[in-house]
Amino acid sequence: MRFFTLSVILFALLAAICPTATEAKKKKKPDLIFTDNMQYKANSTFCERRTIDHEHQLWFSFYPSRLDIENAPTILWFPDGPGMPGSWDMVGANGPCTHSHASEELHDNFYSLNTWANILYVDGPVSSGFSHGEILVTTRQAAAKLMRMFFVRFADKFPEYFQNQVVAWGVGYGAHLATAFAADMIRKNTLNKMERKEGVDPDYAFDYKFFPIHKLVLDSPLLDLTTQFKSAIEYSHYNNLSQIIPQNESEAMLNTFETWYEKRWTNCSTYKQWDCKKELQEFGLLWGNLTNRKDEDGNMVDPHNILKETRLYENLDENIAAMKNSARYRILTSKKAEKGLGLRGKGTMRVEHVNYDVYTRYLHDKFWNLGDSIRSSAEDLELVLNAGFGPPEDFTPAVNTFMFVGEADLLANPLGVRRVIDKMEWPHKKQFDDAKFQRVLYQEQTAMNKQANTTEHDIGMVRASNNLVVYELKNLGRNTFRMNPPFGVLMTRTMRNNDPHPTYIVWMDYKHLNEYNVTDRRRASLSTLSWP
């Protein structure tokens, strides 16, 4: 096993502390520069995965696919946030390793996206997670530009991992950034393929290589606060799971919103120069009025999953405190993690003490106060959906977009996502509107012999057009893959094959592996899942 270490020096955007920064600026070098400092680390034990880390400012970790590195797509992961580091999802959730609820012992995550894909986790913007430095990125446009610069440079250094498809994957609020990133890459590719007789936008001039994005995956997407909050008011009563408020109250709240709030919020979502502090304060109050409720059994409802009692705290600070008291936080701040992730030793992060910021409150507040939370991603999403269907001079390949929506998520509910899509205009819109929902099924097999018991499960519905596939999933809340790992295996296989139709997959209960003398779990997972 070996670990690569790269030094990353970030100049204009990240205000890096570097003795050559002034000289570099005079020479008009790009904002993001890699300085090779290759190191090999042996005997690392952190989840037994090869990682790459940055020193000085921006930290990331890269995990090659477990099954087929040569043919695997590469995922750039955008976590929920803003302020949430990618490394938080690296341990547990969809990451390559996980742990039991209270244990700090790591083991392989058999349902990880890393099974079929290379994954790149980044602690960004700077100051989140293991990254450190001055915060200068406070909008998704600036963050998308930074990620685009970083990603292109990373791919230039490690081309062997980018011979296949490239996927931008965003969860919750991260869907905003993933969509902005994909749109920014499309604009860059279009400009860089054009003849440069009229010059090129200086923001893209140094990204000289054509680098397509093949897929955009949005899990529990928060894309348009105005549209989705309005839908949440209706959905809080008109859903098949848990009626949070009575019909008359839902209708009264909806009428009030349409009369006093909707127009102003829509303007805020559209015009980036508007000061929307008032509207965001209103959202906080209205959201509290909607969610500070008890269900039919008298329990407080969790807006991330209305089928459960709330696990949310009164404010963000209390949520952060709970995260710091978790086993996952103790894992990421342990000496074992420092060794395994290359945070210590020759050629690694040159800091006296490795700090880990599990959720950067200051960064979150900056994004919030500047109105980024209320800005709609409709323009960027429409650009992505239209990619590949313009005139030949655009040179832009099509992007396949996948959305996974849990029916138990109050804000990112199916009704709101449908309405966001309804606003889009793209060549296959009619095909999508006319498409019928189809059932998504999977088969569960609890043993490997011929007498195995097999159970078929209906886990939701899917609707698809040429380049847009939307799954509406039964009984799942925010971050659908984390809520139901076996479903994650099914969906990643479906997405990998661009198959928008009901899919059957046989997966086995790993608790029964030892009964059949199967010692190589990776081999068992490979044969059982029947990867193409």
From TrEMBL:
UniProt-listed Gene3D superfamilies: alpha/beta hydrolase
Top-rank lineage group of the source organism? Eukaryota
**Which BP terms does GO give this entry?**
proteolysis
Query: Which InterPro entries does the record cross-reference, listed alphabetically?
Result: AB_hydrolase_fold, Peptidase_S10
Pfam families xref list: Peptidase_S10
**GO molecular function, one example?**
serine-type carboxypeptidase activity
| UniProt similarity note | Belongs to the peptidase S10 family.
Q: What is this protein called?
A: Alpha/Beta hydrolase protein
Highest lineage ranks of the organism? Eukaryota, Fungi, Dikarya, Ascomycota, Pezizomycotina
